[in-house]
C-alpha cells in the first residue's frame, strides 16, 4: 500500500517552461469540458441538435484519444520542485469536475477559497450536495494542515451540516488548531453570504512514509 502510492509520485523531468506550456494547453481544455458538463444538464435544444452536437463531440474525442495516458495522473514533480496533482478531484487543473480554482493563504495560517458552485453540484433542490461539501472541506482543511507544515492523509473528517448550503457563491476556509504527534487537528467551515452552513473538524495524519519524504525537502512542496 505504501509502495503503491509512492509509485504515483513521479519526477517526470519536465522543465518549468514545459510545465507552463502544458498549463496553457490543457487548462483551457478543462474549462471547455467544465462548461460542457453544465450544458449537458441545462441545454434545451431538440433531439436533432443534440445528435449534431454529439457528432462534434465524437470528433473531438477521436482527436484527444490519439495520444492519451492510462490510469490516474498521480503527483508529478520536476527538478526545480514544482509539484502537480492536476488530477485531484477537488482542485486539479486538468480535472473538469474539480470545483476549486485556487486557494489563498493568510499570514496567520488561514487557508480559504471563494468558489461558485453551479447546478452540477446539486443535492437537495437548489442546494449543494452534502458529499460535495465534504469534498471541499477535505481539500481546504488538508491544505491548511499542509501549509502549516503538517501534511497528512485524512484520518477523520467530522462534518456538521448546520443549515442548507445554497448553490452559488461560497467561501470555504480552514485553520490548523493543534498538533499531537503525527496528527494535525484542523477546523474549518463553508459559509454563504449569510453565515456558516457547514462546519468541520479534520484529523490529518502523516503516515511514516510521508514523514520520511517530508524530511527530504527543504520545505513542504506546494502542489500547483
Ligand atoms: C500529500 C497528499 C495527501 C493529500 C490528501 C488529500 C486528502 C485526502 O482525501 S486523503 C484520502 C482519504 N484518506 C485516506 O485514504 C487515509 C487512509 N488511512 C490511512 O492511510 C491510515 O489509516 C492513516 C495514514 C490515516 C493512519 O495510519 P497510521 O499512520 O498507520 O496510523 P497509526 O500509526 O495506527 O496511528 C497514528 C495515530 O493516529 C491515530 N489514528 C489512526 N487512524 C486514525 C483515524 N482514521 N482517525 C483519527 N485518528 C487516527 C492513532 O490512534 C494514533 O494516535 P496516537 O499517536 O495518539 O496513538
UniProtKB/TrEMBL annotation:
PANTHER family: ACYL-COENZYME A THIOESTERASE THEM4. One of its GO terms (cellular component) is cytoplasm. It catalyses: tetradecanoyl-CoA + H2O = tetradecanoate + CoA + H(+); (9Z)-octadecenoyl-CoA + H2O = (9Z)-octadecenoate + CoA + H(+); (5Z,8Z,11Z,14Z)-eicosatetraenoyl-CoA + H2O = (5Z,8Z,11Z,14Z)-eicosatetraenoate + CoA + H(+); decanoyl-CoA + H2O = decanoate + CoA + H(+). It comes from Rhodococcus pyridinivorans. GO terms for molecular function: hydrolase activity. It comes from the Bacteria. This is Acyl-coenzyme A thioesterase THEM4. Keywords: Apoptosis, Cell membrane, Cell projection, Cytoplasm, Fatty acid metabolism, Hydrolase, Lipid metabolism, Membrane, Transit peptide. Its EC number is 3.1.2.2. It is an enzyme of class 3 (hydrolase). GO terms for biological process: fatty acid metabolic process. InterPro entries: HotDog_dom_sf (IPR029069), THEM4/THEM5_acyl-CoA_thioest (IPR052365), Thioestr_dom (IPR006683). Residues 126-195 form the Thioesterase domain. Belongs to the THEM4/THEM5 thioesterase family. It is a peripheral membrane protein. It is found in: Cell projection, Ruffle membrane; Cytoplasm; Membrane.
